[in-house]
Automatic annotation (TrEMBL):
Domain ABC transporter: from-to ranges: 4-223
InterPro entries documented for this protein: AAA+_ATPase, ABC_transp_ATP-bind, ABC_transporter-like_ATP-bd, ABC_transporter-like_CS, P-loop_NTPase
UniProt protein name: ABC transporter domain-containing protein
Family annotation (CDD domains): ABC_NikE_OppD_transporters
Protein source organism: Streptomyces gulbargensis
Top-rank taxon, per record: Bacteria
Lineage, broadest ranks: Bacteria, Bacillati, Actinomycetota, Actinomycetes, Kitasatosporales
Length: 223
């Protein structure tokens, strides 16, 4: 009864199979790494899990619900329960919005915002990811790469998701900043117990953070 269950997933770009029969589970609260060389199909797998694309074949179940064929409104209702953090910390943020509004956005979208509970929740999320509350007033270009990625993580946590899909969340960051973000992710695992699919080509980082590591090569899992 896994939180995420992927079975025999196939994704094609034209005639080419970028993902070619991939099966794995992520249990509630479990952190699973997905590693492999550039171009092996990791991001494509993540995109299928997030329903950003439709696979040619196979099944993706979230808490028992089949996502590949799910209608738009049912998918929207499930969205708060699985969230994502992308590689480029700035690309995920709107350039003209203050940090506090970026973090509030998923709460507003999913009807979880109220004037009484919203602002303290944003302050709590900033604190959760190790950011000073004063940073809430800043715009994305006024943040360092590490700070921007922490905002992305706070935003992803806002709806209290059960699953996080992290696609190379540290790869665009300076090595000196990377360790801080990895430590934050481990701390979140310990304190919140969010199930996580952690995609990276950095095998050492993944070993450090994950309960279990899957290795991908040319569209297939090898180990
Ligand atoms: P990874 O995340 O492991 O680097 P990707 O999932 O991004 O790998 O890519 C898997 C394969 O699919 C690669 O050969 C890549 O060139 C190809 N690919 C990825 N996205 C597209 C796309 N939108 N159109 C065509 N081919 C793509
Ligand atoms: P504890 O049981 O150790 O007090 P909680 O589960 O209450 O831990 O969470 C600690 C803090 O994190 C609380 O302030 C809570 O509101 C917040 N929190 C809990 N779950 C999530 C989540 N999924 N995303 C973001 N924040 C959360």
């Amino acid at each position: 009864n896994a939180l995420l269950q992927v079975r025999d997933l196939v994704v094609r770009y034209g005639a080419r199979r970028a993902v070619d029969g991939v099966s794995f589970d992520v249990a509630a609260g479990e952190t699973v790494g997905l590693v492999g060389p550039s171009g092996c199909g990791k991001s494509t797998t993540a995109a299928a899990v997030l329903r950003l694309l439709r696979p040619a074949a196979g099944s993706v179940r979230f808490d028992g619900t089949e996502l590949t064929t799910l209608g738009a409104s049912a998918l929207r209702a499930l969205r708060p329960r699985f969230q994502t953090v992308f590689q480029d910390p700035y690309a995920a943020l709107s350039p003209r919005r203050r940090v506090r509004d970026q973090i509030a956005e998923p709460l507003r979208i999913h009807g979880l915002w109220s004037r009484a509970d919203g602002p303290p929740r944003v302050a709590e999320l900033l604190d959760r990811v190790g950011l000073d509350p004063a940073l809430g007033e800043r715009l994305p270009h006024e943040l360092s790469g590490g700070q921007a990625q922490r905002v992305g993580i706070a935003r992803a946590l806002a709806t209290r998701p059960e699953l996080l899909v992290l696609d190379e969340p540290t790869s665009a960051l300076d090595p000196s900043v990377r360790a801080g973000i990895l430590n934050l992710l481990m701390d979140l695992q310990d304190t919140l117990g969010v199930g996580t699919l952690f995609i990276s080509h950095d095998r050492a980082a993944v070993r450090h953070v994950c309960d279990r590591v899957l290795t991908m090569r040319e569209g297939r899992l090898t180990a």
